[in-house]
Amino acid sequence: MPYKTYEEYTQPFVDEVKSNYLSIIKNIGEDPSRNGILKTPERAAKAMQFLTQGYEMDPEKILLGAMFEEDYDDMVLIKDIELYSLCEHHMLPFFGKVHVAYIPNGKIVGLSKIPRIVDVFARRLQVQERLTHDILECINTTLQPKGVAVVIEAQHMCMMMRGVQKQNSATTTSGFRGEFKNQETRNEFLKLIG
Ligand SMILES: Nc1nc2c(ncn2[C@@H]2O[C@H](COP(=O)(O)OP(=O)(O)OP(=O)(O)O)[C@@H](O)[C@H]2O)c(=O)[nH]1
Ligand SMILES: [Zn+2]
């Protein structure tokens, strides 16, 4: 059987969800037949499909696909990885930066795979704390490094555009495993991410 194209794969979702967006547009008092928003239910459904595609992906498989044996056993740091996710309470974006470090234990991973797994977990409904641990545990169990650290700095639109309406507050979450539990290693990592 031939593989389905991306469109064939996502079409059932888009067909279902666009009718929900049509209902939202009507309920907010807009005219859904107005020229500019005629195709908006479909566009919004496609955007939502994109932003939640992480449910369909296997992050461990992504890491396992590019793991290489290597003796290097100092810290590997990938910092300032852009983050865009949706908070599970309001389905509004939160966005910021992710910093990931690990200390190899005989195996390294292709560098691009770290931002890829960040995206897999970010493209789901999330809270920042769980996102931090999802990334941390995925690297820890798959790569089995000597240590792994994840820090996320983010701003939440649900706290900016609505609710408490605080424009300048940022939330930092962190998780440490293995050698990063050691104060000296952790401090070196924190110094490197500034
Ligand atoms: N811990 C945590 N809380 C979050 C995150 N994203 C959003 N929230 C919070 O989730 C909470 C939901 O609280 P509720 O009182 O049920 O919802 P609400 O009435 O819309 O709350 P307000 O935002 O205070 O208006 C709010 O305090 C949000 O700020 C996150 O990533 N982590
Ligand atoms: Zn929220």
Automatic annotation (TrEMBL):
Give the catalysed reaction(s), semicolon-separated: GTP + H2O = 7,8-dihydroneopterin 3'-triphosphate + formate + H(+)
Q: In which pathway does it act?
A: Cofactor biosynthesis; 7,8-dihydroneopterin triphosphate biosynthesis; 7,8-dihydroneopterin triphosphate from GTP: step 1/1
Looking up InterPro entries in the UniProt record yields: GTP-CH-I_C/QueF, GTP-CH-I_N, GTP_CycHdrlase_I, GTP_CycHdrlase_I_CS, GTP_CycHdrlase_I_dom
* Entry EC no(s): 3.5.4.16
Q: Does the keyword Secreted apply?
A: no
Q: Where is the GTP cyclohydrolase I domain?
A: 20-193
Catalytic class of the enzyme? hydrolase
**What's a Pfam family in this record?**
GTP_cyclohydroI
- Sites binding Zn(2+) sit at 87, 90, 158
Q: Which SUPFAM superfamilies match?
A: Tetrahydrobiopterin biosynthesis enzymes-like
Q: Which HAMAP family match?
A: FolE
**Subunit and partners:** Homopolymer.
Name the family: Belongs to the GTP cyclohydrolase I family.
Question: What PANTHER family has UniProt attached to this entry?
Answer: GTP CYCLOHYDROLASE 1, GTP CYCLOHYDROLASE I
UniProt-recorded name of the protein: GTP cyclohydrolase 1
Q: Which gene encodes it?
A: folE_2
